[in-house]
Amino acid sequence: MKKLVTAFTSVAIIGSASYAVAQNQLETTLDLVVRGMMDDGAEVAYNERIIGADGSVEYTDLVIADPDGEFSLSMDWLKGVPSDADVTFTVSDTISVSGTEEGVEFSFKIQSSALSLTTNGVLREAMSTEDITVTFSADEFIIDGGDPDSEVLRKIFVDLGSVDLNLLVSTEDMFVKGGFDAEKAEIAYDYTIDGQSQDIEQSTGTTTVSFEFDIPEDEEDAFGYLDGTKSAVLKASSGASEFVGTMDAEGIPLAIEGTSGASSVLLEIIDGTITYDVSADGFDMVVVPGEGLRIPPVEIGMGEMAMKLVVPASAANAPAEMIIDILFADLVVGEGIWSMIDPGKTISRDPAQLDIDVEALVQLDAMAAILGNEDPTSLAAIHSLDINQILLSLAGASVQLEGAATFDNSGPIPTPLGSLNVDLRGISTLANQLVALGLLDQMQAGMAMGMMMAFGKPGDEADQFISEITFTEDGILANGQPIR
What we know:
By secondary structure, the protein is mainly beta. It has helices at 2-12, 26-39, 224-227, 335-341, 366-371, 427-436, 442-455, and strands at 43-45, 48-51, 57-65, 71-83, 86-91, 94-101, 104-113, 116-119, 132-138, 140-145, 153-159, 163-170, 175-182, 185-193, 196-204, 207-214, 232-238, 241-249, 252-260, 263-270, 273-280, 283-289, 298-302, 304-312, 320-333, 352-364, 380-394, 397-408, 415-425, 457-458, 464-472, 475-478, 481-482.
């Protein structure tokens, strides 16, 4: 990976010396870059350097190799054209890359169409406070390589279609923002490393990424993300995906294929509050064990997945809202797995659900927790809790909770005051089915049923138990009866 970064940096020729001398001429600047690379031991060779009347500089038959000889790239031509403070680089349609990484040889070609990189970071004055900008685009961008006869890397292929990237770096206000768009992401690889092999092909729709974050001056300044003086935002989304492949780990072969829906993710830290929000339209996957493994194909599917976490990391002085919102909808397992534990189909195959929707008012001091300056028990306090819903349904049984409470934090342990409604359905039926299949001990099932009858009461439907748990200053009640 390190050498791939070096490759793209070298192609752009904006590496070790990105500032021009007083003349602000591209020719002089690139001479300094090449000289600096060679002084560091790198090899830079070209057949001809052509200086245009417009101040452009073009290298033909350009070859760049690192000092250790472990990485090199070559291209038919590379051209930079200045325009005011900007320089636009274009390159031949094919760039050849080869080298070794930890003793493993690799080679691939970067194939592109209408590739262009424009930046003001090359002719920028050394003391300038002007923002640095970079734009990159290509009508086609493909990485294709590997050796079919290799014992390690037999194939690597990436096709992003048309791509666009923009980047802005403010050295005065100390922040970075940018975005990346790819028409598609078709990826294939075939390798064997440390006894593990993978041969995978995957195709994903349009992918977009955007980001903006403050730049900390040092490690201590990075704590500004937690105290609210700095912020960061990352957003990403991708289209539907398909994948197929084979794996072999220590002689255990597997075949895998599946599809997944569109997905998105948001990660932000603003005013000391951390938000993580991810969603996906679900997936279907089949894993087929290889010959000799007496395991049926494993089929797994999910209709929808979503997760949102909001953590007020800097809420040390006043309560702030914390959110936990998790949804796993319509989770199903294929009959191949079910038949191993329940061949008679006595257990319901209804899709499983997990839905958690919880809000709370809390005080958190993440800075003190990281620095270890406080008693751990004083770093967090909960003032109120709203359980809008906690629902788990599985194999025909379900557990549902909802309720609310406030907390008295005057003592050593927070004391809740409120109520919690519990709704259990199908539990006894499922317990009896598991006992009949030998998956649950009769005594354990009996103890569970005894607990439900002791703290719950029958509901309106068959095999339903409900209970209202009340937290008072005098103790805890279940359906009005004290339990402690």
